[in-house]
Amino acid sequence: MKGAHPRSPTARLRWMHDRLAETYGPQHWWPAKTPFEVILGAYLTQNTAWKAVERSLDNLRSAGALTVAGLRRLPVDELQRLIRPSGFYTRKAPALKAFVAMLDQEFAGSLRKMAAAPTSGLRRRLLVLPGVGPETADAILLYALGHPVPVADEYLRRIFERHKLANAPPVRGSISYEALTDLTRRALGTTPAARQASIFNEFHALTVAVGKAQCGRTPRCEGCPLEADLLHSTNDS
Question: Per-residue pLDDT tens for 50-78?
Fold first, then answer.
């Protein structure tokens, strides 16, 4: 990017998106073949590594349970056994069953009908399900149902804190989920409506990429694609 480094948080976040896209290229997220597999992954990835989720998904695939009908017919105890690699299986199995029950009762078992519901009401409905917090709800909305909502996670929170993108007390993890997604929406939600979902999709995937490579619990700032912004935020403080 030529010229002076952007100073406003929204402009800086747009710069970050462009810099990460130049560095890492298209991410092709979510790593799943069907919308329902995305939903399963969104539940199973809570508090665990993706490699563990892949083992659980492989188990479900072998049992023919990567579909709504397949999961519906599984007894809870069998579902718990299959998803055990992901941890917290005694909570995640009933939560998955609750999702399928809601889908059957309110959308005739159809993810297509569910995806056609208005975003705000659908998000509220997801948030009252067991095992669904804001990140899981937004991941389902964006990656499984195609709704244009930003997704935030611990990687994005670290970027916000370390780059001073949002005001917060000096306590790790104190920036709210709403603050993360609000700034992301203001920075990247100005594109035409038809493109917003793909922009939010790609940005979240890119922040995960840089988070894994550079912005872990212990930051590795040297050589990071976002290092220039970090230097500017430090000089401006």
Answer: 999 999 999 999 999 999 999 999 999 99
Produce one character per residue of 188-200: b if its CB has 16 or more CB atoms within 10 Å, e if not. Answer: bbeeeeeebbebb
Bond prior to 30 in cis (omega within 30° of 0): yes
Pull the structure tokens for residue 211: 């988070």
Extract the tokens encoding 73.
């017919």
* Per-residue pLDDT reduced to its tens digit, 136-191: 999 999 999 999 999 999 999 999 999 999 865 544 547 899 999 999 999 999 88
Length of the chain: 237
- The Cα 5–Cα 20 span in angstroms is 15
Task: Report helix, strand or coil for 219.
Answer: strand
What percent of the chain clears pLDDT 70, i.e. is strictly above it? 93
Phi-psi domain of 223 (left: phi exceeds 0; alpha: psi -120 through 50; beta: other): left
Give the Cβ contact number of residue 129 at 10 Å.
17
- The CB density around residue 7, as the number of other CB atoms within 10 Å, is 10
CA separation for the pair 138, 126 (Å, rounded)? 9
Tell whether the model's pLDDT for residue 223 goes beyond 60.
yes
- From residue 64, how far is each of 60, 75, 82, 102 by CA, in Å? 6, 13, 11, 21
